[in-house]
Amino acid sequence: MADTIKLDESWKAALKAEFESGYMAALRQFLLDEKAKGKRIFPKGSEYFRALDLTPPDAVKVVILGQDPYHGEGQAHGLCFSVQPGVRPPPSLKNIYKELQSDLGIAPPRHGFLESWARQGVLLLNSVLTVEMAQAASHQRKGWETFTDAIIRTVNAKPEPVVFILWGAYAQRKAAFVDASRHLVLKSAHPSPLSAHNGFLGSRPFSQANAFLEGQGQTPIDWALPEMM
C-alpha cells in the first residue's frame, strides 16, 4: 500500500514493518474488494495518509486523535475533525471552535479546513483511515487500528516531548500507553454535542499545549486558522 499511495518517506521508513505485515496486506485487499463492488470509500486514496504527509515524524509537536473519517459526500480529506474547503464545519468542530474562542480569544473561522494546524506540527490522526460513504464505522476492525497504534508508538518514542490531546474515552483508551512522564497528555470529554458540556468546554487544551511547548523551548502552534479565499 505504501508503494501505491502517497506517503511521506520518513513515515514510510518508520512504518516499514507495518506495511510488510500480513494485516496490512489483508487491509489492502479489503479496500480493493470494496471498490470492486462499487462502494465509495472516503477519503480518496491519495489522501489516506494525508495527516502523515503534512506532519512528518520529526515535525510532530501535538497529536489530536479522532476515530473515523467523516462519511458524508465531500467531507473527509485525511485529517481528523477537518473538512474540505467549502464544507460547513460539523457539530464537533463547531464546539472545538467554541473552546478555541473561549481559551485563546480566536474567533471561529467560516470553514472547517484544519490543514494550517497540520503544517505546524499538529498530527490530526484518525484511528481508522477509511470509511464507506454513509456507513459510519464501516471500516473498523479491518486493520487500521493496529497501523495507527504503530504511528502513536512512533511519536511516543520521540526524544522531544509531545502534547497528546485526547478527547473522549475512545481516544484515551487508544493512547493509554503514551508515556505521560515525558509527554503532556490532555484528557477531556469529546467535543460532540452529546458530551461537550461534560468537560470538553472549558478544558483549555490549546493554551495548555502552547504553554507546554514554550516551556520545552519549542515554537507554539498558531491555532488561528487563515480564512479561505
UniProtKB/TrEMBL annotation:
Q: Does the keyword Cytoplasm apply?
A: yes
A GO biological-process term: base-excision repair, AP site formation via deaminated base removal
The enzyme class is hydrolase
Predominant place of localization: cytoplasm
Q: Which Gene Ontology molecular-function terms are recorded?
A: uracil DNA N-glycosylase activity
SMART domains, alphabetized: UDG, UreE_C
Q: What keywords are assigned to this protein?
A: Cytoplasm, DNA damage, DNA repair, Glycosidase, Hydrolase
* Localization, UniProt: Cytoplasm
The source's superkingdom equals: Bacteria
Active site feature: 68
Give the reactions, separated by semicolons, that this protein catalyses: Hydrolyzes single-stranded DNA or mismatched double-stranded DNA and polynucleotides, releasing free uracil
Query: For the Uracil-DNA glycosylase-like domain, which residue ranges apply?
Result: 53-213
What EC number is given for this enzyme?
3.2.2.27
Q: Give any Gene Ontology cellular component.
A: cytoplasm
Q: Which InterPro entries match?
A: UDG_fam1, Ura-DNA_Glyclase_AS, Uracil-DNA_glycosylase-like, Uracil-DNA_glycosylase-like_sf
Task: Say which family it is in.
Answer: Belongs to the uracil-DNA glycosylase (UDG) superfamily. UNG family.
**Role description:** Excises uracil residues from the DNA which can arise as a result of misincorporation of dUMP residues by DNA polymerase or due to deamination of cytosine.
Protein's name in the database: Uracil-DNA glycosylase
The opening ranks of the lineage are: Bacteria, Pseudomonadati, Pseudomonadota, Alphaproteobacteria, Sphingomonadales
